[in-house]
Every structure is written in C-alpha cells, then in structure tokens.
Amino acid sequence: MNDCSTCVVRNRAICASLDSNEIEALGRLGRQQKVSAGQSLIWEGGEALVVANIIDGVFKLSVNGADGKEQIVGVAFPSDFIGRPFGEESPYGVTALTAGEVCMFTRRDFDNFAHQHPELEHKLLHRTLDELDNARKWMQLLGRKNAEEKLATFLLVMSKRLAGQACNPADLSGGFTLPFGRQQIADILGLTIETVSRQLTRMKDLGLIDVPSRRDIVLRDKEALEDLAA
Amino acid sequence: MNDCSTCVVRNRAICASLDSNEIEALGRLGRQQKVSAGQSLIWEGGEALVVANIIDGVFKLSVNGADGKEQIVGVAFPSDFIGRPFGEESPYGVTALTAGEVCMFTRRDFDNFAHQHPELEHKLLHRTLDELDNARKWMQLLGRKNAEEKLATFLLVMSKRLAGQACNPADLSGGFTLPFGRQQIADILGLTIETVSRQLTRMKDLGLIDVPSRRDIVLRDKEALEDLAA
DNA sequence: CGCGTCCTTGACACATATCAAGCCAAGTGG
DNA sequence: CCACTTGGCTTGATATGTGTCAAGGACGCG
User: How far is B172 from chain A (nearest CA, A)?
Assistant: First the structure.
C-alpha cells in the first residue's frame, strides 16, 4: 500500500480527480516500484496485466515490425498514465528509457476501481482524447514530412516538454537534456540513425542549434526551426 | 428531435449504453442530417462545435501540412463517433467521402449529457482507447513500412471492414468497393498517387488482386498479401 | 591504457517523388 | 448516336532524399 499524500505527481496524475477517501482506497490497490533504464513493464502483444502512473523517469511505447524495425509510438513522462485499461492485450510495449519509479496496479483492480469512479474515468477519457490528438499529429509528421522537418519538429516538441527541467549548465540557457540516444530519435521519427546524425550536424553548422554533449541540445534560433518544422 | 427507436446504428453506436429514458433524452439534443460527398462537418484548427454519430456513409479525418500535403489520420464508418468532445478546438478536419447521414449534437450539449451519464462516457472511453491503438498501429505503418507493405496492409484492413457489405458482383466473390480514389489512398498511406497506382498494377500483374473497376478490388491471394504486409 | 558503445562521416544504391504525357470511362451537347 | 470534354488513373523518364554499407572518431568505463 502507498502513502499517496507524499506523492510528487499527486496533483498532476489522474488521481487528482479523487477525494481523500477515494485516493486512500486506490492507494491500497497500487504499489510504488523503482524501475531501471531498459526495463520493460508491458510487452507488445502480451497480456495487458498492469497499468501505472509514472512518478519519475521517461518511458517509450513501441511497436516492432516483423523485420525488427522499431517504431516508437509514444513517449511518457512523470504524471502520465501508461498501460491499456479495458483491453485484453497491449498492442505496444512499454519500456523505461531512464531509471525511474512508477505507481503500479493490476489491470483488473484498476478496471474495477475506475468503473466505480466516474470522475476518474472522466479524467482518463480526457487524457486519452489528448493522446489521440497527439498521435494523429504525429501521423502527419510520419507520413508527410521530410527528415529536416521531422528533426525540427522533434526538437521543438522536446524543448517544450524538457526545457529548464533538469539542473545542468545547458538547461539554464534554454537548452535541455534528451532522454534518448540517436537510435531512439530515429525510431520516433521513422528515420535511420545516420539521417538523424546528419541532420543534427547540418543544423549545428547552420547555427540553429548547439550540441554541447551527445544528449544536450540548445536551440539557438527557434524561429528558424519553426519555419523548418513546416 | 430524433426518433432513435428506428435508428439503424442504434445497437452499435455509443448510444447502446443507454436505457430507453436516457436515449430519449439524448435524442432530444440531437438531430439527424443528410450530408453529401465532399461536405465538411469539422474544420482542422477550427472550434470544435459539433460531434456526431455516423448513421451512413464514410468520413475521413485529415490534417493538412503548410505545403498543402494532406495526411488522412483516420477513416470513420457507420456507427462510429466523430468529433472532439471536451476540447475547444479540433486538430483535424472531418469530411464526408460519400453521401451519408449523421446524428449531430452541439459539443456543449453532448459534453453536458456525457458528464451526467457515466455509462456513456465509459463506452466512449473504450472507443477512444481502441482508436488510439489503431492510430499507433498506423504510426508503425507510416514510419517503418515501404510502399508494397503499406498497400498490402491497406487492402487487408479495408477488406476486413468492407468485404460483403455492398451489393454488387465484385463484392460477392469476397471483394469490396473502396470509398476512396487513388489520391485518398495515397493520403492515407503517406505516398504519392503514382506510387499507389504502380503498386496496384504490380499486384494485379502478380495475380494477387483483381481490379474489375477503378474502385473495386478482389483479393485473389490473401496469404501472399499477408506476407507482404509484414 | 585499452576496450566497447555510441556517434559521425563518406561513398553508393535504391525506393519513391517529381515531372510529363497519354489513356480510359463517363458525361455532355450537338 | 457520335464527337468532345473532363477528371481520374496509368505509365514512362528522370531526379533526389534517404537508406545501406563501411570505416573511423569520440567518449566513458574498467
């Protein structure tokens, strides 16, 4: 059982829809658990056994084609909800990209609880609708943008989510630290690692961005990037 | 006000979650309306004013890039729900591909009604989760499949939704009639019209499909197509 | 210091886009 | 009933962006 009253994402996670009695009841069903980078919580095509709130860390949702080519279909951050409620199997895997911590429930427990708490379902519906909008915007990127447009869009989106979060020199000047390696960026954008690398060096050469270290990015010319993002 | 008791999608639409009193109340808020091919109900980036159940016809959800390139991010059939509840603006447009009929509500009316009827929201949540799964599967197609794989996947998916629905010779032998022209297929798959055309003739030459007329398709070798779909 | 992993860079190949022409079927008007 | 037009589709020639293959470089870690 959890002590939800000390939970750092308490006010941003879907739990925020519940009153203190309800939260206690839900807390009894869940358990907090540390995860290490690379650890999978849910497997593509596997039974959807658990759902979770992310307390800390970054997770990828991914689908693997027959030929082994991976496509990342979503990225989840602290306070996001992951898993597939009300479904027998998960059509995508969920894997930690960084070390982190989640608040886990069995899907059965969660489904039952949710069905009895309309406000929770309402909040979940809101989030699912938002995620669907995001997924559809991303479909446009995958289907109709070229490599340059993809990278520019990616950097701007990540900047919005990550800028000024962590505490290191690069972040202070409006930069951010990516929780992804180059291969993962490629898997998000539907490109190869080489194309990602080339586009980044090109943008660096054009003075649009700085890359102080492998995973740090500083946007030097946001307007130009927005133009490129199309 | 509608007479929902005679509605042909009554049992498959989200209304199926309601009892007869509730359905009558909902019916008072909606109105049935004919739409003609090409007519838009919702505009990309516009205020989300209405939502609707599809009674008849096929609709596309689409996003247009700055350069005018369209990406179709979803296709909706009879009994599907369209529109963006609980949101100020719609990130995609909704347009009829064929003549049809919808049961329309203002978003305000619908939002209020839904919030007071948890079973309806529950059903809507189910559907939204399913749509999100579909969108993510489609992201894998857009990001990681080549033209051949895309076409094969498309034909199989459409076959599942459309086979044996309409009443014409092609449909009887396991074929189906597409509600799309070539350009729309291209917009769904993130390809150009020429590539779509070439892949179709190639599949025809290989004996995998028949194309008795522009919009009719018969799958002659489903297994081979499934292999190609990857 | 040496090893492994991740990233970058280069040369080349190929799938798909682009540009351009022609075809076909359906509809229209003489 | 037959030219004529029209819009959608197919086909061909060519261009190009991105993938593929291969080598080398940078950084972190033991």
Answer: 32
Specify the 3-state DSSP secondary structure of A166: coil
Residue A162 belongs to what domain range?
A: 145-229
d(CA B104, CA B94): 13
Both A210 and A187 in one domain: the answer is yes
The reply to whether A109 and A150 lie within a common domain is no
Please answer whether residues B72 and B62 qualify as being in contact, where contact means their C-beta atoms are separated by less than 8 angstroms: yes
- The Cα–Cα gap between A210 and A217 comes to 6
CB A67 within 8 A of CB B230: yes
Q: Which nucleotides of C are covered by protein (CB under 7 A)?
A: 6-11, 15-20, 26
Amino acid at site B124: L
Per the CB < 8 Å rule, is A63 touching B136?
Answer: yes
What is the C-alpha separation between B13 and A94, in angstroms, rounded? 31
**Of B95, B100, B101, B34, the residue nearest B60 (C-alpha):** B95
pTM: 0.94
pLDDT digits (tens, 9 = 90+) for B153-177: 999 999 999 986 655 544 556 799 9
Tokens of A14: 């879907």
What is the three-class DSSP state of A109?
helix
pLDDT in tens, A149-204: 999 999 999 999 987 665 554 455 679 999 999 999 999 999 999 999 999 999 99
In a domain, A140, yes or no: no
- Provide the CATH number for the domain around residue B121: 2.60.120.10
